[in-house]
Predict the structure.
Amino acid sequence: MSNDYQIEMSAIAGGILVEKLDQADLEADRGNRLREVATNNKRLMADAFMTVRKEAGMNRKDFSEWLGIPYRTMQDWERGVSQVPEYVLRLIAYKVMMEKERGNL
């Protein structure tokens, strides 16, 4: 991870990650600080998405095919070019957790 936080699958699937992002938004100052928070949030979501993919044990190509999400979209999410929607991240994390639990991953 590139920051001081530890991302866990259960936290992602349970929405705890998003609660932390919302709290950071509430504490942010206006102007430059808001841009900084937005950048940090995007990076946090990118790191969380990579954590989920790695937990699945797949490379980007296999993961995108397994989920039916375009490769380029996932690449942009992981690079922080665009931000994965929070509900999509939670659904993917839940799917990975359930498939691992069932022994399918």
User: Anything to note?
Assistant: The chain has one domain: 9-98. Residues 20 and 41 are 9 Å apart (CA to CA).
